[in-house]
Amino acid sequence: MGDEEDEGVSVLRTTLGLPIWFFQIASGAKSFADNPILGSKRLNRMGLHVGRMRVAHAMAHWRRRRLEKAVPPARRAEFAANGFIRIDDYLPERDFAALRDRVLSAEAPAREMIQGDTITRRIAIDADYLNKIPEVRALITGKSWRGLLRYVASSASEPLYYIQTILTRRFDTNPDPQTVLHADTFHPTMKAWYFLEDVAEDEGPFCYVPGSHKLTPERLAWEEKRSIAAPEGVDRLSARGSMRISAEELGALGLPQPMLFGVRANTLVVADTCGFHARGPSHKATRRVEIWAYSRRNPFYPWVGFDPLSIPGIAERRIPWLWAAKDRFGRIFGPPWPNAGSKRPLSD
Q1: CATH classification for the domain delimited by 40-343, as one of 2.60.120.620, 2.30.120.10, 3.90.79.10, 3.40.50.720
Q2: Which residues pair with 166 in a beta bridge?
Q3: Maximum CA pair distance of the chain?
Q4: What is the pLDDT of residues 170-192, one digit of tens each?
Q5: How far apart are CA 132 and CA 174, in angstroms?
Q6: Ranges of each domain in the chain
Q7: In DSSP terms, which residues pair with 194 in a beta bridge?
Q8: Mean of the pLDDT values across residues 335-345?
Q9: Are 314 and 308 in contact (CB under 8 A)?
Q10: Sheet of strand 277-279: strand arrangement
């Protein structure tokens, strides 16, 4: 009787899930493990995964053409070659010092996640935060800033913004999984780091494989092979759509070794995190503090805007809403980040 009941539940789940799974083909859904259509070996041998990649990258290229006027040609060339844009001394020194001092001294509600030996703390740059620290509002609404982030994101949607603190080597346990080279997803997406303190190359820096954002024949062949092996033939995070790769594999894809971003404070890095990236090595307890931005939208949209969640008055309230939704409905919106109370970015 138990086997019959289990079979009935399985049939019901499949029946209810099919419309959602089919709909997700035309969305940013990426998990081979959670969607049996995306994880179908037969369909991926027929080209489902690489086909989605081709269309998504073509759409991103088309949208970037519509956003390119806001970015100088030299910056666009830098991005096309490398997959990232790096700007040292982004703000005048006096403006940066004022912003940094206000941000580092401000106390605000924080969330913290522990992964391996690393603590990641995030403070939402929400409506209350922007009212309290207008220097941050001036930064993220600046014409140059918005043009760069929108171009790399291939979308005019407003990113999510946090003050992010990364505390490495805090536990005697397994290493942080973010130190393994990976692509966030199958389609172009944007993350940005505006560093508020110096970061040395051996202090857990951001690292990126230059040129790995390009959809080369070698990359497509590698993706196809991995999609056919998924979900059970790859590691857990790759099975969920964030493909891991070892440094030894890069040469076969025609890619160089990762670049470590040892940077001085007041450096902005904007990257397409469909390219391979990671948190760099750290052999001691270190700290990294940054204004961190994140943007990922349905990659198949043919338009650059039309995002109701980017409307002023709504955009700056999304993070508190997201945190509340995860707290209450974690099975739907993903596991919550534990509430760490009110903290400053440099609180230990």
Answers
A1: 2.60.120.620
A2: 120, 288
A3: 74
A4: 877 777 889 999 999 999 999 99
A5: 38
A6: 40-343
A7: 268, 291
A8: 94
A9: yes
A10: 259-260, 206-208, 277-279
